[in-house]
Amino acid sequence: MRSSDSAMSVTPLSSMIMPIRSLIPLLAIVASVANGAARAADGHSGAYEFSSRPWPLRYFLYIQDPDVIRAMNIKTAEWNVRVEKGLENHVYRDYEEFFPPERTIETPDGKLGIVLMTFSKTGVLLTPGFNRFNFTAVVSNIGNLVLLKNGFNDKNNKPYNFANWWELPGSHIMSPAVCDGTEGYRYKTDNPKDTNYVGGFGCREWSAQLQDDDRPYIDVTSYWEADFVIIDRLVGWSGFDSKPKPVIGKYVKNWVCLHECPNGEEPGIISNIEEWTKKHGFPMPVRPKRQPEFPDSMFKDIYEE
């Protein structure tokens, strides 16, 4: 992590790109391993073998429209039954069956649902209400973050996948990151005129802000048009050695604090962002020059068309 004598300055993330470019040879190795892991997953090899490394996540959160989350609870329960019966050829079951919104934040322009999972250092799920499942989280040897039902005593059941652990060797800028299956589309291009453009805030931006000690909070705003911003679907995390940071964002016209709000404040609408940042000694949020900030085009030797 980086530190600074001045906590009031926010270094643009795009100014830290050059150190990443020197990692291209290592990235080629990572891409090769990732491709091999994807093929292995098709044959289930490595999917049920788990890393001996310490469990890395203190918490994992997922933000989405709460009605969509509840609909997915039902849909994934049906999907998981089909997977268990062998009607779907899938390595893992889906965690979304079990996790309704832990909290809903209402704004004049819509609702934000938050799914939160907290863990012990051994990966035991500590989220209230799930003791009956005895979930333990592990990292598979192909990089999936999964929940084992009944811990390690029931290895015959297919684990429940909830995200992927993504690393760039030698980089402390946006790696490690916790990403879900949709993030690959986001990073294909940062050109809004491209037909493949997804844009917005994603898992690489989260990890870059989490690991930057110059940034006192994580701003998850997806900045679209000049007059339109939103908090889009996203996943986030923090580690046991990570400095706790408020998670904030702007949803259309209102700033909100979503998680780990400062000084024990409850999550919800921030009535005045200028007064709020001044009160806590934070700098004002700054719109990035582009989103995504770390597109695949930075690694053309790795992500070939």
Overview of this protein structure:
- With 305 residues, the chain is an alpha+beta fold.
- It has one domain (13-299).
- It is built from six helices and 15 strands.
- The strands form four sheets. Strands 2, 5, 6, 7 and 8 form a five-stranded mixed β-sheet that branches. It has a four-stranded antiparallel β-sheet with strand order 3-4-1-12. It has a four-stranded mixed β-sheet with strand order 9-13-14-15.
- The longest helix is centred in the first third of the chain and has 19 residues, at 24-42.
- The two termini are 33 Å apart.
Rg over CA atoms, rounded to whole Å, is 19 Å
Task: Give the helices and strands as they follow along the chain.
Answer: HHEHEEEEEEEHHEEEEEEEH
Structural class: alpha+beta
Uncertain stretches of 5 or more adjacent residues:
1-43, 301-305
| Straight-line distance between termini | 33 Å
What is the number of helical segments per DSSP (H or I, 4+ residues)?
Answer: 6
Helix-residue proportion: 10-25%
User: What about the largest sheet?
Assistant: 5 strands, mixed
Integer average pLDDT: 81
- In what range is the share of β-strand residues? 15-25%
Strand count: 15
Global shape: globular
Counted up, domains total 1
